[in-house]
Amino acid sequence: MMETLETKIVSIVSIVKEGAIMEERKIREWILERSTDRFLSEGFSNFTMDEIARDAGVSKKTLYRLIPSKNKLILMVLDHQIEIIENKQRIILEDSNMSFKARLEAMFRIVSEFYSSIRAKSLQDIERLSPEIWEMVRQRREGALDRIIRLLEEGRIDGQIRNDISSKFLGRYFQSTIDSLISPRVMMEEDMTPNQLLDITLSLMFNGINKSPGGIYE
Predict the structure, then answer these.
(1) Residue pair 111/144 in contact by the 8 Å Cβ criterion
(2) DSSP letter string, 119-133
(3) According to CATH, what is the number of the domain 70-218?
(4) Is 55 exposed, middle or buried (0-12, 13-18, 19+ CB in 10 A)?
(5) Most confident region among 59-63, 193-197, 210-214 by mean pLDDT
(6) By CB neighbour count within 10 A (0-12 exposed, 13-18 middle, 19+ buried), where does 40 fall?
(7) Class at the top of the CATH hierarchy for domain 1-68
């Protein structure tokens, strides 16, 4: 059957639309990349849509058409960063060449990397000024908790940790302890980096407060 003029026009319009969608996707990805650099270097309060438009080389009209607000853009930045963390944790969880202790520590250190990459003041500002973004971060970390519980259950079955406490309880205990200590407020008050706080937290978790530590974290 011969292609009619109308069919040809529809086909051409479809191709043009697909090209426009692909171009918009590339622009959005570029904006996200530049926004991540700006957010990590400048922080939340100094992060403006004007600067992002200038950094990305797009007009403010284009920027707001693709991403309607600063909060939406920061949400995208953090979502992307958290996705990277989640993928790293999944790889560690399935790595049978690592010991239980090494995997457990690595799982927590990946979370610490996330906090290390972001200024403590920025996290504090997000927690105070953008509760919806902070809530997204909290919810996504629930998935990390599930992965930690899986690893703890494996360690319990293998006899690496005590079996009179459920893995679910231990996972919640670890998560709540880290949440309360590796926080923007504590980082600023103690003048410590996330990695320094994590070292102390892991030591207390596995060794307690005895002067001669024991357990798996020796």
Answers:
(1) yes
(2) -HHHHHHHHHH-HHH
(3) 1.10.357.10
(4) middle
(5) 59-63
(6) middle
(7) mainly alpha
